[in-house]
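Structure tokens please, single chain.
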Amino acid sequence: MSVVLFTKDLLFSSRVTNVTTQRSIELSVLSDTDELMGRASTVPVKVIVLDLGMSGLDPAHLVPQLRKLMPPPRAIIAYGPHVHEAKLAAARDAGCDQVFSRGEFNSRMDEILTDYLGEPDGQCDGPARVTTV
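Here you go.
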């Protein structure tokens, strides 16, 4: 598995799905913390993207748990509304590799994923697969 997007925002997840499908990157969209931990602990994940706009998401609790996985994800990225400066700062403090405003992540998504996954050639076996839970 390449990328897990942790969000409940179906509209924004469709944007991420479009980008990953174009790049033949396997994507799972999850919205439950237990499901995220279960999936990431059984299937290697390269990048986990956290939507800080999710109600109840506590990066100070979740990010350290994700870092303990074997193997750990290559990167944990977070994005959220630019007006939620405290949430963005909390994600940085929790140890996210990068934290973006939602607008910046949206506009630079392809570049950001390329930074962590490499060039599109050879990144996935077969066509992109999208799983939404």
